[in-house]
Write a structure and sequence with these properties.
heterodimer; A: alpha/beta; six-stranded mixed β-sheet; four-stranded antiparallel β-sheet; 10 helices; 37% helix; B: mainly alpha; ABC transporter involved in vitamin B12 uptake, BtuC; two-stranded antiparallel ribbon; 12 helices; 70% helix; globular; cell inner membrane (chain B)
Chain lengths: 238, 309
């Protein structure tokens, strides 16, 4: 079986500074893969390159059998790759419904879009109660739900979530993690970037630990969760 | 003060003209945070486009018949120049420090002015623009010029159409998304390059309408007309809250009213008789701008910058 996403020796640079220094990993259909690591490890840069916001300096990205490296960002979502960016980036002055509709920007099946908006409201009832409210008035956790719901509106084959738990209360974080597990059980493939290594590894089939632009350790989520060096560096144990 | 209705009418007409041009500044700024200082010239070129179309027609053609062709030609000229400017002058500088596109815009403004001066026949002096025949239209409390009718009809139509476009159409929604968060708009599948070109084109089309309104109102076009009109429209856009299309129109109307009222009445204030009349109207317009910038820097309808982050 070939992987849904295949990243080979990817390098990304900001000017002369290389932020991602040659990483390789794959994501198979139906699994959760997580990239963990500290700030500046290159996780967000990797996701932004996959979704076309940044151009790779070298390496190959293959998604669903097609090479991605030079495809512009606005065409990548059409191939089935959705990206919920770090910091949520909802459209603050548009309503919740309008944000969700924008997630389905390239779809033309009106009835299907309506159905999926309803599904987002079922998944996150709080959004359903505030449909007409500008998204900028939502709390951080609610905005995260909206960002995830919006990414799902494109009916992606692969959902990339960048730091979905950032800045959230522990209760809200649990809710988000539970939703990610639910999406997986429905068959969604997810590439999850997290600083909260404990939560991410508990959910993931595979994990990769990134340090200053490189993958330094890979394994199954459970293996990494019990790996001594990971526990020391990322789970706060001495 | 018994000519107050007349002064209000004058102010609103002038303001509607400023507002139409201001749309171009505010839409482009709202999406790429660029003050397109060449927009005044895009307005001016629309005026020359309309004049050219009129001169193509047999001499003595009624202006009313000529108007559709003049509108089309004015829009074509303005839109083409604006799209060309975006593609070849501004797009290569996207991501450059903000000063670079600003200097480019000023350079482009001078280049376009000089191009018309040098290459348009007899454009070194003002060229007469066709006017509607007949005198002013008396509406009781006040009268308006026959040429002003064009503005009275066109300005509200343009604003209603734009409001509908931005809030109800797919492209309009994409435009709002792009102005609020361009990178995330791309993640939605929005071709933001196309949205930016569209913003330039709409602004230019509105400027072209304004140029015809200006031409039939004052009876002439000249290569410098974009400078002061553009500066006033930019003031209107800032006054209303730059980035906000309704703000541009309201800013235009407020500015027009302020100019008209200052011209008419300031000289009646004891001790200020030296400062009234038409010669001082630009001064009062910019005094108003300074006051707004001091008291409400985000403009009348603008958001504070903190809300936009």
């Amino acid at each position: 079986m070939t992987a849904l996403l295949e990243v080979e020796d990817l390098k990304v640079a900001y000017g002369k500074i290389e932020a991602v220094k040659g990483i390789s990993f794959t994501v198979d259909a139906g699994e959760i893969v997580t990239l963990i690591g500290t700030n500046g490890a290159g996780k967000t840069t990797t996701l932004r390159t996959l979704s076309g916001l940044l151009k790779p300096a070298a390496g190959r990205i293959t998604f669903d059998g097609k090479p991605l490296g030079t495809v512009p960002a606005h065409k990548i979502v059409a191939l089935g790759l959705a990206h919920s960016p770090e910091g949520r980036h909802i459209f603050p002055r548009l309503t919740i419904t309008e944000n969700l509709q924008l997630g389905a920007f390239l779809r033309t099946d009106k009835a299907g879009i309506e159905k999926d908006i309803q599904r987002a409201y079922d998944l996150f009832p709080i959004l359903g109660e505030r449909q007409k409210q500008p998204a900028g008035t939502l709390s951080g956790g609610e905005q995260q739900m909206l960002a995830m719901g919006r990414a799902l509106m494109s009916q992606p084959k692969l959902l990339m979530l960048d730091e979905p738990s950032m800045g959230l209360s522990p209760i809200m974080m649990q809710k988000i993690m539970k939703t990610i597990a639910e999406l997986k059980s429905e068959g969604m493939t997810i590439l999850l970037v997290e600083q909260n290594a404990q939560a991410a590894l508990s959910l993931a089939d595979h994990g990769h630990v990134m340090e200053i632009g490189k993958i330094v350790l890979s394994g199954s989520g459970q293996d990494l969760l019990h790996d001594e060096s990971v526990r020391k560096a990322y789970l706060g144990e001495d | 003060m018994n000519d107050l209705p007349q002064q209000l009418a004058n102010g609103l007409l002038l303001g509607a003209l400023y507002g139409l041009i201001a749309i171009g500044y505010t839409m482009v700024y709202g999406i790429v945070q660029l003050i397109n200082f060449a927009h005044g010239e895009i307005f001016m070129i629309g005026g020359f486009g309309a004049l050219t179309a009129y001169l193509w027609l047999p001499a003595g053609t009624s202006l009313l018949f000529a108007l559709p062709l003049m509108i089309l030609m004015a829009m074509a000229c303005s839109v083409l120049v604006a799209m060309g400017a975006e593609r070849f002058a501004y797009r290569p500088l996207r991501g450059a420090p903000r000063l670079a596109p600003l200097i480019t815009a000023i350079g482009l403004s001078i280049a376009l002015q000089q191009a018309i001066w040098a290459f348009y026949p007899d454009a070194t002096k003002s060229r007469p623009f066709p006017e509607f025949e007949g005198g002013r239209i008396d509406l009781g409390a006040f009268a308006i010029g026959r040429g002003d009718l064009f503005l009275v009809i066109a300005a509200p139509l343009c604003m209603i159409a734009l409001g509908f476009f931005v809030s109800k159409t797919r492209t309009g929604r994409a435009m709002q998304a792009t102005s609020q968060d361009p990178d995330t708009a791309k993640l939605m599948g929005i071709n933001t390059d196309r949205i930016i070109v569209t913003a330039f084109a709409i602004g230019a089309a509105f400027a072209a309408i304004a140029a015809i309104a200006h031409g039939v109102k004052y009876g002439e076009v000249n290569f410098k007309m974009g400078f002061i009109a553009g500066l006033k429209a930019f003031t209107a856009a800032v006054l209303g809250g730059i980035g906000n299309i309704y703000g541009a129109m309201i800013g235009g109307l407020v500015l027009g009213l302020a100019e008209a009222l200052a011209t008419a009445y300031i000289e009646n204030i004891p001790g200020m008789s030296q400062l009234g009349g038409g010669a001082w109207k630009d001064v009062w317009a910019f005094v108003l701008l300074i006051l707004v910038l001091l008291l409400r820097p985000q403009g009348l309808l603008g958001q504070r910058v903190a809300d936009r982050a």
